Structure formats: C-alpha cells, structure tokens
Amino acid sequence: MNEYELLDSGHGRKLERFGKITLDRPCAQAVWNPSQPDRWKQADAFFTRKQGLEWRGRDQLPNSWIAQVNGVRMKLSTTDFGHLGVFPETREMWDWIRQTLTTATRQRSEPLHFLNLFAYSGGATLAAAQGGAHCCHVDASKGMVQWARENAELNGLKEHPIRWIVDDVNKFLTREIKRGRRYDAILLDPPSFGRGKGGELYKIEHALLETLQLVKKVLSQQPCFLYLTSHTPGFTPIVLKNLIQQLLDQGQLDSGEMLLTGAGSAFPVPSGTWARWQA
Fold first, then answer.
1. Could you say which architecture CATH assigns to the domain 4-76?
2. Would the pTM of this model clear 0.85, i.e. be above it?
C-alpha cells in the first residue's frame, strides 16, 4: 500500500498527497508549467521560503499523522524548515533494499547486518528490517532517532534487532572499526552541511572521502551492497559512481537520479542522486 502521490509540479513548486493531507511546497527543479493548474486548489497547506520560512494553513493541520509509503508506515509532521519526516524520492530505494536483503538472507540462511548512516527518520532502516536484516541506525540528531524509533513501533518492529545510535558518523565508524563490528550492507546519505552530536562540522566536499574510507573498513568479508545517495548540487550520479569505483571493485556498479514520480501527466522531478555497488 502507498499513500504518497506526486499530484503535479511546476513554477518552482510541487503538489503532493501524504495520506489525507495535500501540501504545496517549494521545488526549485520544477521550472516548467504545472500540468493541472486546477488541482493546486486542493492543497491543505502551503510552505514558502520567499520572505523567511513560512507555513500557510499549518494551523489547520494535525500535529502529526500517519501515512504508508511503499510498505512503511511513517509518522509525519510539518517542521519549521518545510520538511515532514520523509523524503519520498527515496521510496524506490526502500523497495530495492527490502527485496535485496530478503533475497540475500534466503541465500545465506542467516540475517544480514545493515548499517544506515545519516539515517534520518528511518524509512530505509525499517525497509531493511522488513527484509530480515539486523540493523544499526545512526544519526547525530537525538530528535530524529527518537522519531525513527516511533516509526519502528508503528511498523511492528519495536522488538526487531535494531541498534539506535545518536552520534557523529565518522566518530562512530572509527569506534566500530576498533570494536571489530562489520556490516554486510551499508547505506549513507551524507548532508551537504551538518553538525555532529558534539557540534562537529560536516561539509560533504571535505568529509565524504574520509567517511567512505571508514565505511570500507566496516564492510564484512562477504558484503552485499553499498548504497550512496546525495541531495547536494553538483554531486551528480557520475560523481557518486566515481567515488564508489575508487573504493570497491569486482562488483556491479549502477547510478542514477532519484526521482519524485506521480501518475498521469505529473512530470518526474529530479530530487537527488544515487550510486550503488552490489557484490
């Protein structure tokens, strides 16, 4: 079941339905004209960045609500930055992770260990858990890790083996190397700019190479996949592919754009990039 839908886009905006709530939010890539101008009247709320950050109609929305996105139930809530607690352009990746881990677990007859770095509200972590993997979810934001734990409970995964870690990613990886912990499948979605648990500065153009070198050291001897995504302008699919190609060989390497897709006349909206290595 999927309760997310891209209804339309254009004029620098996107119109999306999340369960029973329809939202009109900025989308810089959507430079074309809307396909269905009349549909935009359906919006329950509108977010703009033109004169500061502002929601219009937010007071008419519930404080939070639940929507199922590609098989994962997610708690959603409007944040001051216009986010909701899910990036729906990643939902096809969730499907791939769930299916790949399900298949790999059957082949190995034992659970695989999945590591999600910069893990946000946990959609990919929960898809991996649904695929049978034992998971480790790492994010520097205590609030986001708590949000992810609530999502786990919504999906009946409260008792599933998931380690919930609030930490700076590079520091965490350095400690895991020393502990000898290894992971069969790893996902990372590094931010363009961020702060670690202790206020550590993370700028992708300087820190990503170090992160990837650490990631390589925590891969198991029989790795299943490494998945790298980015929302940073300039980090094209080829850039991500080159980074992984320097790190790993003897596997299948694919890359592409993350797309927001909808039915009918809704144009697909480029919303990030990805590259993945699979053994």
1. Sandwich (2.60)
2. yes
